[in-house]
Amino acid sequence: MSETSTPTTWLTQEAHDRLQAELAHLTGPGRQEITQRIDAARQEGDLKENGGYHAAKDEQGKMEARIRQLEQLLREAQVGAAPTAAPGVVAPGTVVSATVNGSMKMRFLVGSREAAGTTDIDVYSERSPIGAALLGKKKGDSASYTAPNGKELSVVVDDVEAYVG
To answer: Could you give the residue range(s) of every CATH 3.10.50.30 domain in the chain?
Structure first.
């Protein structure tokens, strides 16, 4: 794998179907609804001081960004189960229990928020600082990483299990 390539995002069939449905809604009824709201706000007159118009345009921008994100994700993702790592090894699709800096307990899924769906578990990408530091580690292994705030943190893997959505 070259320095510029990115790891494959794996989606279950259920996650893929859910994201396809969201994309279909956003590109169909979602776009129609926001266009109608913008048109209605435009009819109110002066656009410089029209809060409804500006709010609708802002929402439209966010929706278009989400559409682009979904299109890219669905275009590049692989549907099915990620290649399985050896049991007990941190890999995408595993739930990690860990201790950070000797005291803070964490439990999180290594993978994508999209694959996790509506679960309450925290999700860290395998490209995140903690995800990248722990890939390939087993129970009892330790690693260190630099958090986004610049702090150097140490983490010990307490347990690794397969994610069951």
So the answer is: 94-162
Helix axes 51-76, 31-42, angle to 10 degrees: 160
Q: Which amino acid is at 45?
A: G
Whole-prediction pTM value? 0.59
In this predicted structure, the answer to whether residue 1 has a pLDDT above a threshold of 50 is no
* Contact present, 72 and 130 (Cβ < 8 Å): no
- In terms of Cβ atoms closer than 10 Å to its own Cβ (0-12, 13-18, 19+), residue 111 is buried
pLDDT above 90 (res 58): yes
Q: Please list the residue range(s) of the chain that carry CATH number 1.10.287.180.
A: 10-79
Q: Beginning with the edge strand found earlier in the chain, give each strand of the sheet holding 152-162 in spatial order.
A: 122-124, 104-110, 94-100, 152-162, 142-146
| CATH architecture label of 10-79 | Orthogonal Bundle (1.10)
Query: Could you tell me which of 157, 70, 143, 153 has the C-alpha nearest to residue 106?
Result: 157
Beta bridge partner(s), residue 33:
none
Assigned CATH class of 94-162:
alpha beta
Neighbours of 162 (CB within 10 A): 13
